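BACKBONE GEOMETRY TOKENS:
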Amino acid sequence: MDPRKATQGPGTAAAGSLLRLGPTNAKHRTSVVMLRDPQALSAFVPAWEELAAAALEPNVFYEHWMLLPALEAFGKDIAVVLVLLHDPHNPDAPAKLGGLFPLEPIRRFSKLKVSAVRLWQHLHCYVCTPLVRADAAKECLVEFFRWFRSGGASASLVELGCISGDGPFHKMLIDVTNELGLRNCMTDIFTRGLWHAGHDKNTDPESAVSGDLRRRLRRKEKRLSERGRVEHLAIGPEEDVGRWIDEFLRIEASGWKGQRGSALASSESGRRYFTEIVTSAFRRGRLLMLGLDFDGGPVARRCAFLAGEGSFAFKTAYDEEFADFSPGAILEMDSIRQLQTLPGVRWMDSCAATDNFLVNRLSNDRKTIQSLAIGAGALGELLVSGLPLLRWATRRVLKMFSADGDSPVKTPDPWDAQSFTEMKEAKTCKP
């Protein structure tokens, strides 16, 4: 049976069951499915692909070819909530997938004994904006929050963390929560580097980068080229993606990440996850992979993914023996040049930490990332209303009992290659 045609009468939804809520809409009839089994989710892949293509805002991390491998590698007790859209005039027609919300439980929200859920963010996920259809975004959000308020999540609070804070999804979210009378509170907000392609493709993309930085990187590359042959590479449609994957994993594992056990190749699950998503992106024509070689050997590799009108930076790896030549920074410049040549691609999200010195100098814009807590019921509303006071009191107490509030903090050298990668790979949203 096609799971998109599944129906069930009103009531509390168990994992994998369907829940109808609210009155019939004029345009669509909506329902909610909550699934915990990745195999059950796989049945929705065709509708999932259509949803991603029609989403109000793109999020490559929540597309099926990235989320399903992540669930397999890192997911534990994760529920994926699907909002389905039914044609009220043709009940036998397959439902459309209108929204997708991966949720994880929070046992102690803000160290309080309050049940809550939040959008799932694993270690290698840098944005959690849910996928919702642009032509039915309001309907989908209304249905999701009705399901939440009815007890479908068994929680008093939901945190939509690490979402785009300056796009159409955020604006729709604020409008819907206000319309439904849901109290919300901002729990985190920051900006990070974003690159916008110029309207004139004939304009030199490097012109937006400071002259001092360009000269510094050119000098470093010149010094390297005096020692041997330097090649700038970009993966093509006919190349062996497996070789690029192996080179990336080998370079990353050879450095400090390998020593700390945080490299993707340090675990079989990490290696498998990276291999699956990069291979899938390559087959779909969604992979942007750049390389820097020295005398025929790989020195650095950079991986990013296309989604809609933009791209999301993912990982950069370099050989630490070449750290003095800033190979990672050189590839960042290459990515800016590449963006200018891609038809229909307008922006690149750095997915970097907000204080990444080098990425910030290379960027010509900023991307706002925000987290919102939304309460349901008396307890949820009370908690959301009290969060600002709780945070203020916590800061005051910490300041009072700080051993030395004025002690200097060591700032890493932004031009040091390891510091650059540590900042680039820092988790960009608070858990």
Q: What stands out?
A: The chain has two domains: 3-182, 195-366+414-425. Residues 3-182 form a domain with the Aminopeptidase fold (CATH 3.40.630.30). Residues 1-26, 407-424 have pLDDT under 50 and may be disordered. The two ends are 38 Å apart (CA to CA).
